[in-house]
Structure formats: C-alpha cells, structure tokens
User: Fold these one by one.
Assistant:
Number 1:
Amino acid sequence: MNDPAKTATTAEPLHPLLAERWSPRAFDPEHQLTERQTTALLEAARWAPSAGNSQPWRFAVAHRGTPAHAGVLDALDRGNQVWAHAAAALIVVAAQSVTADGATRPWAAYDTGQAVAHLSVQAQHDGLAVHQMGGFDRGRIATLLVGDGTLTPLTVVAVGRRVDAGRLDETLAARERATRQRLPITDLLLSVRPAPVPDRS
Amino acid sequence: MNDPAKTATTAEPLHPLLAERWSPRAFDPEHQLTERQTTALLEAARWAPSAGNSQPWRFAVAHRGTPAHAGVLDALDRGNQVWAHAAAALIVVAAQSVTADGATRPWAAYDTGQAVAHLSVQAQHDGLAVHQMGGFDRGRIATLLVGDGTLTPLTVVAVGRRVDAGRLDETLAARERATRQRLPITDLLLSVRPAPVPDRS
C-alpha cells in the first residue's frame, strides 16, 4: 500500500522502510494488532541503543476496546481523538528520566525517541502505520500510568492499519493527501569552527 | 559482516536492519565516507517524523583529516577518543531546542533521537556502523558550532566501516565481543489504571 505521493524525495535513495514511512490519520477501525505484532514492535524498541545502555523507554500498550484504551483516548487533544480512536492501539511512551536513586538521565528523551523510531521501522516492515502524538493532557496521562514517579510521558503512539483517506472528514483527508515537506539538507547543516591555534607569542 | 553473537535475541523476529545493528568501537582508520553515503545518512535523518513537523535536528559533519574533525575529536572524553578517532566521520548532533523567536520545543531531544535512529538504520543498510556518544565536553562542542544560540548539543556520532575487534586494545576488544544485553520486555511495560467511574451517588 505504498503511496508514491507520500514517498520521501531525496538526493540519494533511502531504504524503502524509511522513504515510505509517514504518519497517517486514516486507520482501519476493525483492525486489531496480533500479540505477535505487538511483541515485534516492543522488541524493536527494546533493542534500540541508549546512553550507557540505560534503556530509559517505557510503554503502556492500550488496545482498542479495553478500559485502558478509553482512558488514554480521553486524555488526547480533541484534534487527535477524532482520528486516533480508530487505530488498533494507543501506546503511551514515557521516559524514565530519573533513576530510582534520583539521578537524572540527560539522554532519556533522546533515547526514547530512538526506541520509538525503531518501533516505527518495524511497524512499517510489518505493514502497520504509526502516528506519534504530542497533543495530550500530560497530567492526566501521568495519573493513568502505574509507575513510581520517575516517568515523563512524552508521546502517545497510534498504531494500526492504514486505510484510504476517504474515511476522514474533508479537512483531514486533504492533510492526508498533501505532499510531505521537509527543510532542505542545507538548513540542517551546522559548520564547525576550526580549533583555535595555540598562541605561540 | 553480520555477527551472530551481536544479533538481537527476540521473541519475534525483527527486520535484520534492526536486529543486526549495534554500536562497535573498532573502525577502519583508512575508510572514508563518500559524498553520496553522507548525503544518504542526512536524508534518512531529514525524513524522520517530528512534533508538528518542526524538524529540530541539526548536524555538523566532520570528516577524518579535516580541521573540524580535530576540534570535535579533541572535545570527546578520553575513553571515546581512543577508538572514535578511527571512524570516517564524527557527526555532531544538536537539537534546536528553542525557536528563533524564543519558544521552547518540548520534543526537540526526542525528535532528534528519532532522526539519528533513522540515520543509523540507513547506515546499517549501507554497510556502515554507527556509535553514538554522550561523553564529550558540551561547552566546548557548543563553542565549536557556528549557530545562533538556540542549539543544544546532544550526541557525537561516529560513523564508519566496522573492522575486527583485534584492532582494539584488550579491554575494548572484550567489550566489542561481549553479548548484547537488554532488559526483558516485561520491565519496559507500564500498566494503565482504568479510567475512574463517575460518581453517581
């Protein structure tokens, strides 16, 4: 179900799992994740790299139709609820940004982003689509999570099977069909100043 | 050059680009990145998802043998310098964590982690190895970057061609050959409390 209009336009070819990945809003409301699919997604995240192998990523998987799902869905911003309800699962992603003994983990968010990226690549490989959301009530999500106070909720990830944009209302369907945009590479590049020459005077 | 001892052990099979990726310390000191390889790495990062498509990731690519490389290498912790010098390039990764008009980007680090994960997947596909480092002098790296004060340096990424661990001293070679470890999935899973039932009394 690759959509040429959604494929990344690049100066050098990317692996298809990267080039063809995007974040849809039209999900099949009948589709359910199998246990094996869910496990593969979590395994992908689990084997991501992290600072000192600290593995700060934590996940709460709420499958559509469960009480947990109702609670997570309800904490999303309205603009996300209108489409995210149809995804097979909502995965709450939190970083353990402080260790049990109170030490901060400066790379907790960065590493958790990596883990979700690995999850997304595996999802793409398994014919699933992923759409990450930052728009939710952080306080309510934190209240829903059974944890020890060391967790920082970062995103809620909708995972499911993509369907045609015709499922969406007109505004969302137009966004769903829009060409993907990115900054040019030149805007992402920083220069490095040459190291200062030692003063020999 | 897949190493079975380094492949992730998973309950469900992962895509090989994820299962076989790891972070080596033995790099070929003669190997150089081609311009096309460098472009593909940056394209992979460029097309990662981000909050509101904010694309907060920024990169400074320092190829071995350049003055920029000398400056970046010098800012690494000694324990990283001893192996990272051999990689074809050191890429400084920074998040634009504040916009030009002063607004903070809460997902800047998370999204930048995702971009580097995409870069790593592309590197693996291209037969390159990646090892991310958090151990460097942040102040010195920030001084080296030509920017506008909105940048937060997060990692320095060594990219190159992996070689046999025999290139390393004994301590590093032992680490290079060690079996990869991760927490069990059960340790990563959080529970979600059921949403409270409205009080009808």
Note: Chain A has a mean pLDDT of 94.
Number 2:
Amino acid sequence: MTSRMELLSSLAVENLTKMVLLVVDGLGGLPGPKGLTELESARTPHLDELAARGETGLLEMMGPGVTVGSGPGHLALFGYGPDCPVGRGVIEALGVEAPVAPGDVCARGNLCRIGEREIVVDRRAGRISTERSRRVLERLQREMGPIDGVSVALHPAEDHRFVAVFSGPDLDFRLSDADPQKEGRAFRECRPLVPQASFTASVVNAFLARTREILDGDPEVSGCLLRGFSTRPDLPTLEELYKTRSAALAAYPMYRGLARLVGMEVLEAGPRPKDLFHAVQAYWDDYDFFFIHVKTPHLRGEDGDFAGKVRALEAFDEDLPILVDLQPTVLAVTGDHSTPSLLRGHSWHPVPLLFFSPYGRPDDVISFGERVCARGGLGRMDASGLMGLMLAHALRLMKYGA
Amino acid sequence: MTSRMELLSSLAVENLTKMVLLVVDGLGGLPGPKGLTELESARTPHLDELAARGETGLLEMMGPGVTVGSGPGHLALFGYGPDCPVGRGVIEALGVEAPVAPGDVCARGNLCRIGEREIVVDRRAGRISTERSRRVLERLQREMGPIDGVSVALHPAEDHRFVAVFSGPDLDFRLSDADPQKEGRAFRECRPLVPQASFTASVVNAFLARTREILDGDPEVSGCLLRGFSTRPDLPTLEELYKTRSAALAAYPMYRGLARLVGMEVLEAGPRPKDLFHAVQAYWDDYDFFFIHVKTPHLRGEDGDFAGKVRALEAFDEDLPILVDLQPTVLAVTGDHSTPSLLRGHSWHPVPLLFFSPYGRPDDVISFGERVCARGGLGRMDASGLMGLMLAHALRLMKYGA
C-alpha cells in the first residue's frame, strides 16, 4: 500500500453519493488521414455536452512514455499505483477465468517447438489454432499428474497461448522465466531467484521435462515455455480502503477478474454499452461505486480500423444518456490506455479524462478529444490520483490536519 | 527532512534580495450563481496587473483530492512537505497560543457530558459558551494539581473546545484518542500505541478520571474527551535550511504559531491587510523573507457568504500597492487551501498562484482567477515546490552539479 493510499484511507468516510467510473478501453488515439484522432472525429454529442458542463484533463497511466497493459492500467484507475504490481501470470489467469487461490503460482505459457540441440525453433509452434492448442493442453492435463504433491492446471488462451497454475504447499513465485525470449536460442529451465523458491523451480522444471516426454513425437508441438511467474497479490479492497460498496459491469473475463482483485462485486450484463448501462440502472441502489468497462473501441484500434473505432465511440456515446440520467454525483469517463489505430496496439499516449461533479470548476473545453483535454482544467495527472479526486468530489474525504 | 529540502538547503546562499509570500487564506473557490468563482467575480485591478506582468499557476496542496487543514497547508507553502507532519494537538495549541516546550504532549479537548453506564451523551456539552467553558477549565486547572510529577495546562478555545498540554519527564505522545468519536458510545480511556507511552497513558487517564471527580454534580459538563495527542516537531528552521532571515505578519494565533515553528520572527501588526502591509514596510530592511497572512476571505467562504468573500478579496486588493511599491524581488500570492462558499469549508481544489519576479517568463494570463491560472505558465505544481521557486527567482540557489 502506498503512503497516498494510506492517507486517503485514513480520511475516507461513507455517505449516500454515487460514483461512476466509465472505462472506454483504448480510448486515446492518434491523428488519422484528416488530421483528427478517432475520438476527435467521432460524433459524440453526449460526451461533448458532459465535457462542456464538467472538467477535462489527461491521465498519465504510469509516467511519460510507458505503455501499460490492461492490468496495470485498470489498477492505476482504481487507485493502486505502480507500487502495487500484479504479475503478468496472474493477470493472464484472470483473463481466462482460471481460479487462482492465495499461494498458487501462475505463469503465462506458450506451446512451442524445440529442435536439435535443445534449440527453440518456433516459440509459437506455428501459431497453432486455439482449437488444436486446446486439445494438446487437454492431453497434457490428462497425462501429467501431480509433481511432488503440486498439482498443475492448464487453461487454454488464444492460439498457442495458455496459463499454468501450480497449486500446493510451500510454493514461491520468485523464479526466472523458462523462456529464451528469442528463437534460435537454447531452451532454458527456470531458476530460483531466492533460495526459498528452489522447491518451486524443481517442480516447474519437472513439469517442463514431463511435457516434452508426453509430446515426444508430435512434429509441431514439442514443449512449452513459461514466463511471468507470479502469485495472487493481497491487495486491500476498495471497501477496506475507502468504505465504498463497489460493483463492476464488464463483459470480458480479464476486467471482471481485475475488479474482483480489488474486492468489487461483479454483476451480470450483456456486452453492449446499453446492456452495461441498464445493469447499472438496475443495481443503482445497491452500490455506491460503479466501474463500467466498454471494450469495442480498443478492439477496432487493435485492428488498425480507424473508421471502426470512430463508429464504436459513436455507438457508445448514443447509449450514454441511460447512465447520465441516473445523475451520479461523480462521473469520470476515461480509458485504461490509448490504442491508436495507427499503432494497432496499446500505446503510451496519455488518456483523455472527462470529469463531472457538482463541485468542479468547469473549464472552457466543450468537446471530448485528446487535444482539447490537454488544455483542460484538470491538467495532466497521474492515473492513480483519479480515485482520490472522485472520492473528494463525492465529499467522501475528511480534511487532513487541523 | 525530505531529500528535496536537503538538496535546496545544500544549494542555498545569502544575498540582498527580498521575498514576499502573501497567503490569502481560503483563496480558491467554486463558481457561484453567475458561473464565476469568488476570485473571478472580484474587481482586483492590482492583482490583475501583477498577473499580467508575472506568471500564474495552480498549487496542489497535498495531491489530487486531499483537503488540507491550515497546518499542513502552510507548512507545504513554507517548503515542508507531507513528510514533515505536525500533529493536530500541536496545531491546536499554536492556535490558542499555548506554550509547548520540546517533549510536552498536547491534545485537543472537548468538554462533554457523560451519562449512565459511561455513555457519552453529548460530545460538546450542549455546545456551552466560550465563557462558561473558560470557567469550567479554570476550576479544573485550580483543583487538578500535578499527576505523578506531570503538570497539566488547560487552555480554552472556542465553545466547548480546549487544549491540554502535559509537561514532565518521559512523556510519549503515541496514544490512542480518549474519545469514542460518536455520541451514544461508551467513554473510552486512551491506550499506549507503543510500550514507551504506557506512563503517559496512565497520567492522561488519571487526568480524565480526576476531571470527572471534580465536575461530579454538574448537570451539563461531566467530563472531557482528548484526541490528537502530539508533540512539538523538531523542524529545521528556514534560516538553518536556506539562510533567510524570515518574518511573519499574521493576526491570528495559529498562523503566528506555524511561523514560529519554522523559525520565523513574528512581528506585531493590526489585523487589516493595510496594517500587515505597513508593518512589512516598517521592517523591510530587517528581514529577507516575509510571510503575510490575510484571513478574511476564508472566514466569508466558511460562512457560505459568496458576496462577502468577493468583497474581502476586493478590500485586500485595494491595499496591495503598499506591498508592491516596496518592489520585492519575488512576490508570490496564493492560499493555504481553497474555501469555496458553496462548500462552507476547506476544500481539495487547487489554489491559484500568482508569481512575480524579474526573472520570469510572463504568460498570457492578465487577470487572477482559478481557471485562467489553470492555463498559466507555471502549470500545476506541488505546493511544497513553491519555496524552491521563490529562492531560485531571488537568485539564492547555486547550480547543482558541474
């Protein structure tokens, strides 16, 4: 826990206000052919109206130049700064809804092909299909059995990717990657980074060896690589920290998992923005903090589909009044990272923030876009500062010191 | 001492420049009925002229969303960041001009009424008058006597409030509050938070018990509550840090106390801005750093009196030429926190900063207000960075590194 979280926590009080954090995945972008970004190009009258009535700014997710994944991006928005890291293995496990108990060690895995002299000739086993990968993992799961009292659960992800969860007593995640990172290099076992992890290293390496025995003879897939060993972090929940009853509306497993990690109740709803917003409406009286995750703009950005991202933003704007009509005390609209179509992936660019509350100083920004937000009244702030700002505007923080 | 203070201190040199820090208590506000804040509404030609010639920005007192009290607010402006906390008991003691020697333990007190089964039925003893409260405290002081070699001094504050200062050897302030915080709960003694504080806890609890014996039979006031146990912090003075001879002009005890805490000389002057400014004029040759505290805008904000706060700002602007005509090398005008009339109290909103020196880069802001300052050339900065900026513009900091 950071000292800022401790400070906010010591000041937090309960009241009847409602806070909504609307995360538009991959919200930020870069200029397209006509010089405007996706968000600047999109016709978003409802966002623009909120921008005109509220305040705007830019969020730095993890300092200048750092491109964050969805895990650290969301955790920052929830107020858990870079001092509360969550391992990649765990985030990946959340993404495939793999159960991870306290003490379990997770890792991201690749099915791969290992050739002569232990050389990893293809780190992705020819990018084999999700379906074929699933069958291979089922076979491994069937034939593997526990290793020195440690059970291993294998969960397929996309293509050649999977998640391995090791469960048993005395495990320690502090291991080096069992992955040469580049093709043409020799396969490598994991090493314990601290003496306490020696037992876990021996189990993991036995698992890797056993995998190669089981797959012996398969021309395509002859082994696997593991990286990002990590364990479920023991984060204080939002309720413990700030006395808020929090709920998450998110269609994708990873975001549901991230929400659970900070103690949110995950509610059921369809995947479209209007489904999510209607669900908030249905549960309005039961919680005081709502996290809503809208996925499509990121997917179109990742496809490099500029027009598609523009349409996805317009579609979500159309449904926005469902949420606005609930009259939340504080409404923050932002993203967990930028996904410019130009880069076809996550980027480091700061993310636009739209902030609405009765206690703001409305700035002169009257539309929602990256460059107008750069001149907004909230300035450029660390994403991990947003939660404190939402609590303050909901009058949920006492004064510090006399 | 923070690493930044150490760095600045290592670079500080003396010269003949003059620096003025003018703190307008509760300066920042929120839009009123016409959409403008108190400061934006006020006719302040002299501030506007300074803004046009100088630079502007916004100060974050303690990170986004945190509302600071006057203690941490002023300490931040003096360059003592959140790593130099000062306990509430001490700040309160400064506020009533209670002498506090190194090692003394102070606490904020409430006279209260305790009923059947030790239940605190009224934490404020019916909000008894300051006058009646003073008589009760005098009686307690007269009849109490030392406890195990520790003397107790009781200082009346407003209404039911007072400050207790425990003086004697081997005291330790690390005690839990002797206050159930809410009415209807049982009275509670203080507990030592560390073993070294056991003796102090026994003295404080004996004091609380003795208080109830003395007041036995009084239908209104039957005991007291104590909270915020703290001791005088051992802060390095501004002179030790930056080689400045500093003076404070402040009419209210708390600000005089805060100034003394960082080693300023506290000068005598009347309460009106013009009295304070004339005093600066009178002592101009004797000091090189002047801290001036103007109180009225905060009081009107706390009353929820928008028009009154506007008038208070206009009144202080009228007298400003007295100060400007002294031609300080550096003049900073800001506040220790915002006090919007809308919220009738301290708030978390960043505070406008007006900064004038011969070595600035004047921005295009030509009036003094919250929202123009948000676009000012100094941007949004941590309040604890201001002192370094003032020293730099006064050419009092050497280069760091070759």
Note: The longest strand of chain A covers residues 105-114.
